[in-house]
Amino acid sequence: MDKQLATTIFESLASGVRLDVFRLLVKNAPSGLVAGEIATLLALPPTNLSFHLKALTQSGLLSVVQEGRYQRYRANLPIMQELIAYLTAECCTGHPEQCFDGDSASGCCDTEPSIQSTQADSYNL
Amino acid sequence: MDKQLATTIFESLASGVRLDVFRLLVKNAPSGLVAGEIATLLALPPTNLSFHLKALTQSGLLSVVQEGRYQRYRANLPIMQELIAYLTAECCTGHPEQCFDGDSASGCCDTEPSIQSTQADSYNL
DNA sequence: TTAATAGTTCAATAATTGTTGTATAGTTGA
DNA sequence: TCAACTATACAACAATTATTGAACTATTAA
Fold this sequence. Notes:
Two copies of one chain form a homodimer.
Chain A lengths: L2 H11 L2 H12 L5 E2 H8 L3 H13 L3 E6 L2 E6 L2 H11 L37
Antiparallel strand pairs in A: 1-3, 2-3
The first copy, chain A, binds a DNA duplex through α3 and α4.
């Protein structure tokens, strides 16, 4: 997971239509749906749906296989987990235990710590 | 977490600049950084950074507190966890055990199951 | 009080993304 | 082969988002 891919994935889900499509295919995992079914269920013109399916597929969020004249789309769930790992990989300067306690993230960064330095001398890139 | 919020969050991260800002603040959690530090580190004009910080804050990904003449920004990590839960809540028609085995998602939907029905009679909205 | 600093808002412009109809390519069944 | 069907590619247009400089508000220090 690099920055370019992460941005592409977020762009892919940054549309109401594409978010609907992806969630519909998550619901219908692992069998997936063919394009026409998606168009019917979401009441979308075929050209518009095709535009969004292309974006989702190119970002890796969907996979597609041909079945005769149909195109069957499936959601790629693991990529979402990789995305989260990418976002939180260097959480808290490599000390994620400050943020996450096991499976729960409820302890992370939602507290307001006292101000430590008004003028930072060294940053944390 | 509703659709509108989810879309807004994805839109917020669907920009290279905003993704850089958010990850920088994840790294620098929980102390956060003030706007000028972010601008310096990412080499962004103040107006442009302000534009993106506003988007990130309005979506809830960042919190901001005033410190004198400074504005300190912090990443809101838990919202990301809520977002993932939203995306996978109805995974596999309410049978996520088909997809996720405990903490790992590696088993989910990355296999290509044999085609079950070419023409679906009932959908799964 | 005055000058300097930090950050935002606003307006204009540039750039990107979304939507639609028409045309096209591939598949199926008569 | 031919007509119907599924889906995508293309082009034109509409709509949204990103970027920048100038002006403005608030805070700090002299």
